[in-house]
Design a protein that fits this description.
The structure holds two protein chains of two kinds.
Chain A lengths: L1 H20 L1 H27 L13 H14 L3 H11 L2 H5 L5 H31 L8 H25 L8 H13 L12 H8 L2 H14 L3 H36 L3
Chain B lengths: L2 E16 L11 E16 L3 E5 L6 H9 L6 E6 L8 H5 L2 E5 L11 H11 L4 H14 L15 H13 L5 E5 L7 H18 L2 E5 L3 H7 L2 E6 L2 E7 H9 L1 E8 L11 E3 L6 E7 L5 H11 L2 E7 L3 H14 L1
Parallel strand pairs in B: 3-7, 3-8, 5-6, 6-7
Antiparallel strand pairs in B: 1-2, 1-4, 8-9, 10-12, 10-13, 11-12
The chains are: A mainly alpha, B alpha/beta.
């Protein structure tokens, strides 16, 4: 087990190195972040300035900070599902199966390495964007909470996409699974607005989904940081990381059994 | 000589769904069973270099996959270094090296050095012996200038040198090579063959190789197993096989005028095209250079190509001779 983790740590380090080596792509991602935040902040500023009579009341605080946090997480996510699809459908899995270490763990660790680099770079971009626009940032207490919840949030997101990628063992294309997960992240995760805006019954459902663990719980800390909420958010995220990890392992085992039996997919 | 690989009645059948025409038939596809490997038996001793050859679909790669543990057989038994491959895949992985000519085991976007470093951790290798082995292989394969280059930017020959290096870094006792020279130019093929042969000889390593290229077999292996339609047709030393079947060359002469006409022992003319004369030469009776010298003396030659007979022909000949016997 210790040796498996050492190999995974090495894969994570290499993933981080790859993320840094591709600095031009990383810079492009940061510029895109600035662009969409400019658009979304203009939208939310207008909504806040001109409330419509009878409309649902918005949560207190600057909603731009919420979107800044959720977009920070979304843009840091890796394309691990595409990697799995490519390896599984092209037969590229074979060399990995000839190794004594767990392909799934190695691949996820490598993807997480690159994700952490992107998370850091986008985080710096967010702070720079706030400073450049003269907008007040989240309360100081929010930053350490966001740092922890951000890492947990991208892990949840990566595992969600990993489940889509592992469907390649059975499906010719994983795009439909990817799109379903992506839309649910937007809707139940609350990408553009907190799910607290939804009717109570839908909010309650949304809060217990992995999609909220991916976006909402971290986003809301940018608005109203609190120790209690932080612990609740982290607990949901850790729970979903555990459950999604089990799901990924189950999918992997079933898919691997198919490959070993049939010699491919 | 102790057996490194023992195979008994090993079989693998694949089941495919074949679509039939018509709307309703699409919901009830016909299932077809194809027997890729049909009850093969053989043993390979320590230090042997063995080639499995055969036409496309003969069952070579399927056999190799079962012996390396990434494919479960339909029936039969196999023991590789004392392990059952498909049941003890991870334990076996520490003891074998595998190269697939058409698949890369390296991380394309990483420099080779990073891939090798990751492989050290994947195979739980201590730093010092690993560095020593990497140093030796780097020197032997002249990789020093390639180590910091991303693998996807390398030529096929450079990549294959790195692939073989990667497969040897954990010091395996047994090397599986599936079409290791496919797509390489003549120089790169020669370098790979020399290396495999010398490394195996110096380290007492057992090699099991599949290839379409008869030169891979002649220059690397001391024993050949010929398979066709999932069955072993011939299992004999390379020397014997060479004498029987591999002593032929196909020489094509391109000429501006009339075709080449030679009267030499063991030289027969094949169906030829305009301005191209195709000769089959039995090299036991007349050497290739003699044929070329005679053709040049005849005059009008613009180009010459020398090839081995297609593997399918060799197999067909072997198959025909074994059936006749």
């Amino acid at each position: 087990m210790r040796r498996d983790l050492t190999a995974a740590a090495q894969a994570l380090r290499i993933g981080a190195g790859q993320g840094l080596a591709g600095w031009t792509v990383l810079a492009g991602r940061c510029l895109f972040y600035v662009l969409i935040m400019t658009v979304l902040s203009a939208l939310w500023d207008k909504v806040a300035a001109e409330p419509v009579a009878g409309a649902i009341p918005l949560p207190k605080g600057d909603l731009v900070l919420y979107v800044l946090a959720t977009e920070w997480i979304t843009l840091a996510l890796p394309s691990v599902h595409l990697r799995f699809e490519d390896d599984i459908r092209s037969g590229g899995l074979e060399p990995h199966l000839l190794r004594p270490k767990f392909y799934l763990l190695q691949s996820l660790a490598q993807s997480l390495g690159g994700t952490l680099v992107r998370l850091a770079a986008l985080g710096v971009t967010a702070v720079a964007w706030l400073a450049a626009t003269g907008r007040a940032g989240p309360p100081p207490a929010a930053y350490p909470y966001l740092a922890v919840l951000g890492v947990l949030a991208v892990t949840v997101g990566m595992l969600l996409y990993a489940t889509a990628g592992l469907c390649a063992f059975w499906a010719r294309r994983i795009l439909p699974f990817q799109l379903v997960i992506q839309k649910l992240m937007f809707l139940l995760g609350g990408l553009f607005a907190p799910i607290s805006l939804y009717p109570d019954w839908l909010r309650k459902i949304g809060e217990v989904t992995p999609f909220a663990a991916h976006l909402y719980w971290a986003g809301i800390q940018a608005l109203h940081p609190s120790g209690t909420m932080f612990l609740k958010a982290a607990a949901w995220q850790v729970l979903w990381i555990a459950l999604l990890s089990l799901l990924c392992v189950a999918l992997w085992r079933a898919g691997l059994a198919k490959v070993l039996r049939e010699g491919g997919v | 000589m102790s057996a490194v690989i023992t195979v008994k009645s090993l079989s693998k059948a694949y089941r495919y769904a074949r679509r039939r025409g018509g709307f309703f038939e699409a919901f009830s596809p016909e299932h077809v069973i194809v027997e890729a490997v049909a009850g093969v038996d053989f043993e390979i001793g320590a230090g042997e270099r063995v080639a499995i050859i055969g036409p496309n679909g003969a069952g070579k790669s399927t056999t190799l996959k079962m012996l390396s543990g990434i494919l479960e057989p339909s029936s039969g038994e196999a023991s590789v270094l004392g392990l059952t491959p498909w049941k003890q895949r991870k334990a076996l992985a520490y003891k074998i090296g595998v190269v697939f000519g058409q698949r890369s085991q390296l991380w394309g976007e990483l420099p080779a050095r990073e891939s090798f470093a990751l492989l050290r951790h994947i195979y739980d290798q201590e730093a010092a012996p690993f560095a020593k082995r990497l140093g030796e292989l780097t020197e032997r394969f002249a990789l020093a200038d390639l180590l910091d280059q991303p693998v996807h930017r390398m030529s096929l020959g450079q990549r294959m040198r790195c692939e073989i290096t990667a497969s040897l870094l954990h010091g395996p006792n047994l090397l599986f090579l599936d079409e290791p020279t496919i797509g390489l130019d003549v120089t790169a093929k020669a370098a790979i063959r020399d290396f495999i042969r010398e490394h195996a000889r110096d380290h007492g390593q057992t090699v099991l190789l599949t290839s379409h290229d008869t030169r891979d077999i002649e220059l690397v292996c001391d024993r050949v197993i010929v398979v066709n339609q999932g069955r072993i047709v011939v299992d004999q030393p390379t020397d014997q096989l060479r004498r029987r079947f591999l002593g032929r060359k196909i020489i094509t002469f391109q000429s501006a005028g009339q075709g080449v006409s030679l009267d030499l022992p063991g030289v027969t003319r094949r169906a030829s095209e305009a301005h191209a004369t195709i000769l089959e030469v039995d090299t036991r009776l007349t050497r290739v250079e003699q044929v070329i010298a005679a053709a040049l003396a005849d005059g009008g030659i613009e180009d010459v190509t020398i090839e081995d007979p297609p593997m399918e022909e060799v197999i067909a000949e072997i198959y025909a001779s074994t059936h006749a016997a």
